[in-house]
Design goal:
By secondary structure, the chain is an all-alpha fold. It is 85% helix and 0% strand. The protein contains 3 helices and no strands.
Length: 131
């Protein structure tokens, strides 16, 4: 916020009249110097305002960039998680296929064993009992 200008010195015409020309000149120089200092201060305040505005804009841009990067990271993590799930699914499907093959082989082996067993139990000459 701008610093308020100092009020002009109170005019006391009788006091000014009592002063000599050297003092009047010195007073005028002081008033002029004060005005120059106030102008310089206003310029510095304007520069400060512009600089802080620029810094605010840069900070906002940095925040926006950080937000975008966070979104990109989040999307990347989601994609990695999706790919990991797909790999797990493929691995499980392959494992299931191996188990199915083993099961078919085992069932086939058991059928052969059962057929052998039943073959052993069957009479060798089925027509001999009927006579």
């Amino acid at each position: 916020s701008p610093i308020p200008r100092s009020p002009p010195p109170a005019r006391n015409d009788s006091a000014l009249a009592a002063k000599g020309p050297d003092q009047m000149l010195e007073l005028a120089e002081m008033v002029a110097a004060n005005e120059r200092l106030e102008l310089a201060l206003e310029e510095l305040q304007a520069e400060h305002f512009l600089e802080t505005g620029g810094l605010r804009g840069a900070a906002q841009e940095a925040d926006a960039r950080l937000f975008r990067l966070g979104n990109e990271v989040s999307r990347g993590q989601q994609e990695l998680a999706r790919q990991a799930r797909q790999m797990d699914e493929r691995r499980l499907q392959e494992e299931l296929e191996l188990v199915r093959r083993d099961l078919v082989r085992e069932l086939h082996r058991q059928e052969l064993v059962e057929a052998d067993f039943l073959g052993c139990l069957a009479p060798e000459n089925p027509g001999s009992h009927a006579q």
